[in-house]
From TrEMBL:
It comes from the Bacteria. Residues 160-229 form the HTH crp-type domain. It comes from Candidatus Thiothrix phosphatis. This is Crp/Fnr family transcriptional regulator. Keywords: DNA-binding, Transcription, Transcription regulation. Transmembrane segments: none annotated.
Amino acid sequence: MKSQPANPPITFKTRIIELLRHTPLLQAFSPQQFTILLQHSKTHYLKEGEMLFRQDEPLQEVFICLSGCIKLFHLTADGHEKIINIIPPGQNFAEAMLFTEGNRCHMNAAALKQAEVLGIPAVQFLAFLNESPLLCFNVMGLLSKRIQWLLDEVDRLSLHNATFRLIYFLLETHQHPDYCNIISLDVPKHVIASRLSVRPETLSRILKNLAKQDLIALHDHKIELVDIEGLKTLLSHGI
């Protein structure tokens, strides 16, 4: 993993500053705190497949994806990957692990494709939290939303079928500011299948079935959401 100290060229700062300012993790920090965090941070440049951190390693930073995609995953007993989440640009991750016993990573993180990730020193991040109860409450609110998302995800995986999970994933991805009605599959289908806990062939079959119903259209590595209201209706009926 290659890193470069903060204070990047102006062109780089201009490109990421707005992205960082709108990142949920940093919205609660004052402009002065925001500047100090960036000054102490560093950028990790990852090749496709390169690890950012491994399970059980000490957590020394919290992270924000700047470009590319990061996968968070566990390894099963037989060595297979179970994708927990796919992190797009502008999303923070790993901050919850700061508050676990030993401050250790409880999963693995690697680049799904070439990626840039900002690493904020955990020591500086925690120092600001110690100074401000308001910041603590704001971060607690963020973590509460993350916990609720995880609880909902358990519900989707245990109570709903593969079609429901895929439609929910498409609609959730559609809300990302980089997409309109066309979703680019920036990661391989087997990665999405793992994320949804379905087999790759099952994923392909469901995509074709949705296309036959004119709910989506498949274009090479892109999925067009043709009938968003129709997809939402299927979700509301529980498929």
